[in-house]
Predict the structure.
Amino acid sequence: MKKQPTVEINPEYITFQKRYYWLDQRIQLTPLGKEIRYSGIRLNEHRKRIWVWRDGSQVQQSHWIYTFIYLDSRELLEFECDYNDKIKLYVRECDTNKD
């Protein structure tokens, strides 16, 4: 079986606009001073997977979405990373069904 090449990304954080977002359970502050916590990662199933060459081998790449939760509300902060591990977009969502 052919060994899969490793992708050189740091699994401990993502970077957006020169700011680190840690992928663990520590409480973090947004640029506006709001507290957030990492919630999880998921595959963006609306984007197709592609095959790319890395280190002489073909590997399958996908878009991934990293989700953070604002601790003072039900709002989400999400970052989508593209096939090249670059942040493609970020979204701030709020839950309109508040109690």
Remarks:
- The chain has no helices and nine strands.
- The first strand starts at residue 13 and ends at 16.
- The chain has a mean pLDDT of 84.
